[in-house]
Amino acid sequence: MVSQEVQQIVQGMKQGDLIGLRYADNPQKIPAIPTAVAEIFAIYIIPKLKLEPIIFSLPEDLKDKNNFIMILNDVPRVFELISSPLAFIKFLRDDDELRKNTRILTTDFLDRFIYYIENGNSFFQQGKPYFFALFEPHSWSEYYFKKLYEKSKDAIYELIERYFPDYFNEIKDRGDGVYGLNATSTLTAAYATQFDNGLFIASLPPDGYFCIGEEIKFSEFIAHFYTYYFNKFKKHLKEFFDVYGICLDELYGISVMPVTYIKRNDITHLLSIASKVNEQNPIEIMTGRIQQTTNLRTAVVFDCKSLPSIFSQKDNKGEKTALCKLLKSLLKYMKPSIGEEILETEIKVFIDKIIPTGLRAFSLDEVPIDNPKAERYRDYEKPNGSDIARVHRQIAEFIAGKEIEPGEYDGEKAITILESSFDFISNIIEKELGECNSGVVYHAFEQLDFVACERVNLNIRAGVDSSKYTEYDVKARFMENYDKLSKAAISIKYLCTNIIKLNPSGNKVLNRDFWDNLLALADSAVNLSYAIDFLKYGLRKHKIRITDMYEIKHEVQDYSFDIADFAKGEAQNKIISAQDRCCDTEKQDSQKVVNRPPFLDDLDIAFSEQYGFKFMDMVCVMYALGKYEGTPSLPNFINECSKTDLIDFLKYEIAVNCPSSKDLGKIIDFVSIEQKSIKKDKVIPTQMFRENKRLNLCPIYRKEDIYIFGNQMCIEASKFWTSTVYQGDFPYKTNEDSPIGKCMSAYRRKLDKELEKEAEEIIRAELGAENYEANILNFTRLSKDFPKRPDCGEIDILAVNKKTKTFFLFDAKNRRKSVTPYGVKFDIDEFLRGKKSYLSKIIKKEEFIKDNWEKILEHFSVTNCDRWALKKAFIVKQNYQVAYHYKKAIDFVEVDDLDTYLNKK
To answer: pTM for the complete prediction?
Structure first.
């Protein structure tokens, strides 16, 4: 029987007005939820199955309500398969909705649960609900037993359970033979790997209770390092231990302990070893046996501040030192008769043999972080699969309501369906945001700052990892994570822009569930917006298939360019850039003198004429705001202050050549975005990047007389402005006759000449001065028989490689790089399409060369013209998407790769 106590609790919840901390001393000050708006799911848990049948009954008023029955043993298994408790609530909600709207047949609601998990956290996404649904019986047990069978193939699970029965409830394969363990009941974690027939485990301090700040980061680093190497060199280590008669075929563990943690918690037996740790000796190790057991245990004690001094060195000294100390401690305890000098020598020989000096696998490169809050930032919140599925179903229901016939749609019909779907989702977003209170502002901007900071960290990690030994493809992992962050940034910027437009003033309090729904809606709106533009501009073929039940399938048939190759090129360039930053950390001192390009002086003058302040002053202001510490009373990392407070802070922060208060005020207004800045009725994600007032450029939200901003977005905006103008682009359209327009035009011409000059120098170095001609305007240079200026126009560079018998026709193009569908379409048109395109012009030059083939080769002292190949290419400074167009009919060569291109057969 369901116990009387449970019935009383449920009845009490029904009768009570509020659910909260009702037993506290002061009920008036305790937040509580009205039962009328609360979601209450009753889950009846049966302790265990018995041979005899279990009989129970529910109260009449609870029958057919949202209640569930589970066996106690199934509870932890369910939470192994689901990402969070909130995700489980979303399942209960979807299951309850399914049962209300559909006749279902199932023996156990866990059979529905496993279908839900395997179907992308949803039951269905069609526009018309099923009248009847049959779930296959015993799906849950079949799935779980199959999972257990797969687990049993890996001995690590059996070993962990043998030595730590029912302790670690989360075991995750981290790759490279390393497993992450978590005991959520005690907030303890560890790394583990199988060693010989036993288990090697590196335990972390219980961070949930005692660890702070960098202690967690460095503890995980050291634990992962030792576990990785005990797995990677298990065969060599076993052979080494065998020489000394040491057998580690049972449990061997290390405990990772920061010195600060030991002293703060007064861990008496480790204080003596902690006292030996200093700047010159950042890591010390002691081995012994746990009392009343035979298990070996090693304490690894280190100093967080000094540890990077050895793990940031360009060779792998840190790894060798740390592994050497561990082996020495272990052997000294197990074989105390061996002399210390002999031991050190033998260990060093062994480690040098298995780990040759060279690439590191683990490093702690110290890369300066501009944002003082960055180390305290949390991970950004990602959209939940359940919410995304729900939004897909909403779109399907909307299309079903419009009575669009099932079938396949492409071209204009597909665009119409996508546009109406986008309008539908956009209206829901505006409605939901309009009901929120101002708390949504701070949360959205905080999430945007978290994403921006994670992108910086990703770039740093990629730069560091590319110079290390890794067992994974650095480029592939980088692009996978970069794509996720880019999509997250666009979705959150879309929400932030809508928030600025709407200025929410409702009563709804933001919670994680509601934010998940907003993220899913934004994600869908962004995808629809890009799909519309890709179709409109002919960048891909996109077919929409609507089933009889109004489930919508999007089929992307092909793109007009090779996205995968473009992504590889982007990854390569970003990783090289990150490498340069990591290698240049010693030069990134605040006292470093930077040669100021003359162009910046010209741009400062142009900005002063057009806007009343200098360009570099604006960049300096945004960078300085990235160091703002914020208002302590706010519960998040977003800053909120008056204009006066901002000016006072900037005067303090910008110690040298600080602009006047008047100029600071102008700059703050220029880089701020407010409600009236959003002039369009509907915010469209793909068009946000073409607006003058957008968050990439104007990271401050002005809400009446209050200025709201995140540190990282200000820093990124300062970098975006400078990197864009350095490339010869201005981030939005400006009048060519304006001071800034004239300045940028002159600078672009200068960059074009510099690119041609750079290409010239590479060609001269690779092929020799006699084998190329540049800036050919007067064609009589090539032959006295040629007209001075033929119709084909000026040729940037001609070159010959006599070894490979290749003739090169080059056109240097240094122009703005676009990433939006509209911009990519513009690039394709300008480079490849039409009579005025760059390709059309270079083809005229090619025709002239073919018509005069022998005379031009004769100019380069080539007498035998047989079997020569002619190659034409654009020399570019950046990685353009148009370079990967399937019908480009010309090569694109980045100037950094020009030497390779010249010598390729």
So the answer is: 0.82
Q: Which residues contact 610 (CB under 8 A, 6 or more apart)?
A: 738, 739, 740
What is the three-class DSSP state of 103?
Answer: strand
Partner residues linked to 813 by β-bridges: 876
d(CA 615, CA 401): 53
Assess contact for 805 and 866: CB atoms under 8 A: no
Percent helix, strand and coil across the chain, each to the nearest 5: 50, 15, 35
Say whether pLDDT at 306 is over 70: yes
Is residue 773 within 8 A of residue 798, CB to CB? The reply is: yes
Stretch 754-761: mean pLDDT: 94
Any idea how long the chain is? 905
DSSP 260-326: HHHHHTT-HHHHHHHTT--SS--EEEEEEE-TTS--EEEEEEE-TTTTHHHHTSSSSHHHHHHHHHH
Q: What is the pLDDT of residue 183?
A: 83
Q: Are 199 and 163 in contact (CB under 8 A)?
A: yes
Tokens for 112, please give them: 């529905």
d(Cα 722, Cα 619) in Å, to the nearest integer? 7
Q: Which residue has the tokens 């009989």?
A: 55
Question: Of 694, 691, 695, 692, which is closest to residue 709 (Cα–Cα)?
Answer: 695
Nearest Cα to Cα of residue 732 among 775, 671, 690, 774: 690
Token reading at 778:
């007067």
The C-alpha angle 143, 149, 154, rounded to 5 degrees, equals: 135
Return the DSSP state at 887.
T
Distances (CA, A) of 516 to 87, 271, 387: 10, 47, 7
Whole-angstrom distance between the N-terminal and C-terminal Cα of the chain? Answer: 83
Residue 360: DSSP 8-state? B
Tokens 């265990």 appear where? 48
Task: Using the predicted structure, report yes or no on whether residue 11 has a pLDDT greater than 70.
Answer: no
Neighbours of 59 (CB within 10 A): 12
CA dihedral in degrees (6, 12, 14, 20; nearest 10)?
-100
Contact (Cβ atoms closer than 8 angstroms) between residue 632 and residue 773: no
Phi, psi of 421 (to 5 degrees): -65, -40
Higher per-residue confidence, 357 vs 639: 639
Lowest mean pLDDT among 264-278, 359-373, 640-654, 841-855: 359-373
